[in-house]
Design goal:
Number of helices: 11
Helix content: 55-70%
Strand content: under 5%
CATH superfamily: Urease accessory protein UreF
Largest sheet: none
Mean pLDDT: 94
CATH class: Mainly Alpha
Shape: globular
Radius of gyration: 17 Å
Structural class: mainly alpha
Number of strands: 0
Distance between the termini: 46 Å
CATH topology: Urease accessory protein UreF
Order of helices and strands: HHHHHHHHHHH
CATH architecture: Orthogonal Bundle
Length: 234
């Protein structure tokens, strides 16, 4: 149609890898949101949206975007030593044990499934590096290596990954507060600008010079470790 700008279609692999149905167990993690709901700090659509926006802009969203971009670039350049450095850095870059589990367990599940269905030597090397270091491969690093290995461009990979992170938190909020499904969709609609902007900002991000500043989320995650009744693992 005249006057319209067509965006390239998302690669099929991304639609599969970062869909809610991909077996990484994302549904079992809430990134500290369950504790925030228990504390009364997240209690309606507006407060859930603020929580997710903070996580995206100033917390794991920004950090994971930088890690994904760094792993993608290193893999494209065939820099195995750099990938190993990022695996080690990502393993140390979590504010609590639960947030480390959230990233590492999903990364391990993602890597295992992609290796089985979309095999590639770079994925095998990533699994071996993580094993030799005695750590779990962080989710964004695994996604970055997989995307580079299979020719998925960086920008759509970042957009899809960040959307998946936000969507999973919103889904947790819908169940925890609880919110209606329409409220959840309104939050996701409002987050579109943030996800798109952050993805573009992360294109040239360097993990070593990136930082997070979400102490309330880290503290919520730490408190969640001893929350008596829990639906989620983080």
């Amino acid at each position: 149609m005249s006057g319209t700008i067509e965006r390239p279609a998302l690669p099929y692999k991304l639609l599969v890898w970062l869909s809610p149905g991909f077996p990484v167990g994302a549904f079992s993690y809430a990134h500290g949101l369950e504790q925030a709901v228990d504390d009364g700090r997240a209690h309606d659509a507006a407060s859930v949206q603020r929580y997710v926006t903070s996580a995206l802009r100033h917390g794991a969203g920004a950090i994971d975007g930088a890690l994904l971009a760094g792993a993608w670039r290193a893999s494209c350049e065939g820099d195995a030593a750099r990938v190993a450095d990022l695996v080690e850095l990502a393993a140390a870059w979590r504010g609590s044990a639960e947030l480390a589990l959230e990233s590492g367990a999903q990364g391990r599940a993602f890597l295992s499934t992609v290796r089985a269905a979309w095999p590639h030597a770079d994925l095998d090397r990533l699994a071996e590096v993580a094993r030799s270091l005695g750590v779990l491969p962080a989710y964004p690093v695994a996604v970055g290596v997989a995307c580079a290995a299979h020719g998925v461009a960086l920008l759509p990979a970042l957009e899809a990954f960040l959307h998946g992170f936000a969507a999973n938190l919103v889904s947790a909020g819908v169940r925890l507060v609880p919110l209606g499904q329409t409220d959840g969709q309104r939050i996701l609609a409002a987050l579109e600008t943030d996800v798109t902007a952050i993805a573009k900002e992360m294109l040239n991000a360097e993990p070593e010079t990136s930082f997070a500043s979400t102490p309330a989320i880290d503290l919520a995650s730490m408190a969640h470790e001893t929350l008596y009744t829990r639906l989620f693992r983080s």
